[in-house]
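Next comes this protein.

***
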Amino acid sequence: MKLLTYRRTDDSIGHGILTDDGTGVIELGDGDLATVVAAGLVPAAPTAPAQRFDLSDVTVLAPLQAPGKIICAASNYQEHIDEGGGTRVDKTRTSPKLFNKFENAIAGPDDTFLIPEISAAADWEVELAVVIGREGRNIATDDALDHVFGYATANDLSLRALDKIGFERDTENAWVGFFDWLEGKWADNSAPVGPYLVTADEIPDPQSLPIRLAVNGEIRQQSTTGGMIFTCAELIAFASRLCTLRPGDIILTGTPAGVGATTGTYLNDGDVMVAEVEGLGKLVTPVRTA
C-alpha cells in the first residue's frame, strides 16, 4: 500500500492511500502519517464512502513531518568508498558508522533545497529510507525487518565544504578540510523523503531494489540496494543497541557511487534532482542558491 501525506486546498494537512491508478488519494484522516505508523498496522481501505482527492488538487508532503530521529548510515556502499579512494571494508571487523539529521532537514517532493551561503559544495545522495513501525531495543538482526513499517525514497543532501565566515581560511588550523558530520548534514530541507511511504508488506526484500539519481536529466547514480555493506536489518539491529527505536524514526541507509564530490561537480542554482528507488516513486528536488 502506498500512503501519502498532503496539504489540502484549505491549507490543512491530511493523509491517505494512493489510488491504484496513481491519480488520486483516498483520505484516511487529518495530520500526517505519524498516527498510522504508530499503530504499526497497514491501514484498511475505508469500507464506507470516503473523501477522495485528485492528486493534482493536493500538495504532496513528506510522509512524516516530524520524525523522532533521523539516523543516517555513512559509507555503506563499497562502491561509494571505492570512488573516494577508500579501502575495502571487512564488515566482520567493524560496525556501521551512523550520524544524524534533525527535523528541520525533512522536506517533501518538489520542495526546494536552498544551498546555504556558507557552502558552494552541495552534493546529492540517493538513499533508501526505512521507517520504523514498532518500538524496539537490542533488536536481533533476524527480527529487525519485523520492526519496519515501510520504505521510501530519500536524498541525503550534503555540504561537502564550508566557509565558516572566513575561519576556514586559516590553513594552520588542524580542522581545516575536515568534513563535519553535523554541520555538513543538517541544512534545512537536506533530507527530502517521498513522494509516498510504501508499506513493508509490498517490499519483501529491501536489498534487491534498483536505485538511481539524475541531475538535470543526466543519470549520476545507478545501482541496487544489494550493494549495501550493512543491510537494512543489520543497521536497525545495530542502531537499536545504541538507543530505543520508536515508530516514526527514519533510517537512511547510505548511498551508492556517483556523488558529485568524486568529480568536484556540485549543485548549482536551477538544478533539478530526481531520486528514485524502484517501486517507491520519484522524488523531485529543485535547487536554488541563497
